[in-house]
Specification:
Length: about 210
């Protein structure tokens, strides 16, 4: 994981600036979908929060939200931005979701969000099991994933090329949407929705509930 931590630190400043600027109607719809699940309350964990833009925009729709990421510089940007914006119910920490030291509210989290994360971790099924364990019964998992296994084969050499020149992290899984949904179902999640809302991004959006 060390190589990828260095990668995220290298791109942190540019990523933070881009994330703060690029918020169009599809981004607003993403926040609305999550807000509908939160219902204005609850303890939320965001896995792979990066510079915290989504975390901070979700903060208005829940009681508290804790953003975690492996990029130390990204977490620095997130904390500074939250302080500047006066968002007091969003906290940020450099920690792996698999780390036993990750703080968990009594009874578990009400919801976990992760955007463009699961295809970049070493062991996706292990992460799904971990997130299932972090949620309280009936808690929700909201994810968006580029399911590269469903994309045209022409993207394969492109993805390989950008990894070779250091423009992408070292781990990029080509997960299929059906595989991801099966992974969640086998772990004990009920899939409430699985669809692509934004055809341009190609992100497969899943809302699932812990049985």
């Amino acid at each position: 994981m060390g190589t990828d931590e260095a990668f995220w630190d290298k791109i942190a400043e540019g990523y933070a600036k881009s994330s703060a600027k690029n918020k169009g109607p599809n981004y607003a719809a993403r926040i609305e979908r999550a807000a509908a699940v939160f219902g204005g309350a609850g303890e939320v964990l965001e896995v792979g929060c990066a510079s915290g833009e989504i975390t901070m925009d979700l903060a208005a729709h829940c009681t508290r939200i804790h953003g975690i990421d492996l990029g130390a510089k990204l977490i620095e940007f997130a904390r500074a931005s939250a302080a500047e914006r006066g968002i007091g119910n969003a906290t940020f920490e450099k920690i792996d979701a698999m780390d036993p030291a990750l703080p968990v509210p009594e009874g578990g989290y009400d919801a976990v969000t992760m955007y463009s994360v699961i295809h970049l971790v070493p062991d996706p099924p292990a992460l799904v099991r971990r997130l299932h364990g972090l949620l309280k019964p009936g808690g929700h998992l909201i994810s968006e994933t580029p399911c590269l296994g469903d994309w045209s084969w022409v993207w394969r050499p492109v993805i390989g090329a950008v990894r070779l020149i250091g423009k992408a992290p070292s781990i990029v899984h080509r997960i299929k949407a059906a595989e991801l949904e099966a992974m969640l179902a086998d772990t004990g999640f009920e899939i409430l929705e699985g669809t692509v809302h934004n055809l341009k991004s190609g992100q497969h959006c899943i809302t699932a509930r812990k049985r």
